[in-house]
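[audit] Reproducing an earlier prediction to check determinism. Same input, same settings, fresh worker. If the tokens differ from the archived copy the diff job will pick it up downstream; this log only records the rerun itself.
[audit] input (192 residues):
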Amino acid sequence: SLLALGKVEEAALVVRHGLEVTDGGAELEYVAGRVHRAKNNLREAVGALRRAIAKRPDHLPSRAGLGRLALVAGHFSEAARHYEALARIAPRDRQVSIGLAVAYRGLGRFVEAREVYDRLLERDPNDVDILWNLARLCHHHLSLYDEALMRYRQIRELNRANSRAVLVELPGLIADAERLSVGAKEAGQQEA
């Protein structure tokens, strides 16, 4: 495709011509959205993707594009709406699930975000990206420091086993989660 080759202007001409001579089906509107996004015309990109969905409500790439644009703009409610619709159509899609969890986190729906990550880990318990997101969620939003520690340590072991460099942040996060876990336990003992 012209977009894949970085020929944005040429792609824009092809799409514009296609829209002039046809009714502009969902696929063409989707490509128009991609062209506008590549040109950083986000309002036009959203409009084209919405037209694609109006023409074909089950058009996955357009819904995913709208979800991603909403996440980037910090419109978590709109992103969640798109990703929830996508999850009904493609419930096992990893990227859809991640987008949904990120939208839920942005809305402060931390328990629901955790449920999405837990379902993803049922499919692949060694998915470092999901483990990372879940550890950060537990650490910073759910105050589940022991679980965060377990996930951070699991990431560290997976990185060692795969001969990858351990994330630079990981030692500091582990130390912080340990400190918070001990503090939470001591506070619980003092209340008792």
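[audit] rerun output stored. Observation attached for the diff report: The radius of gyration is 21 Å.
[audit] end
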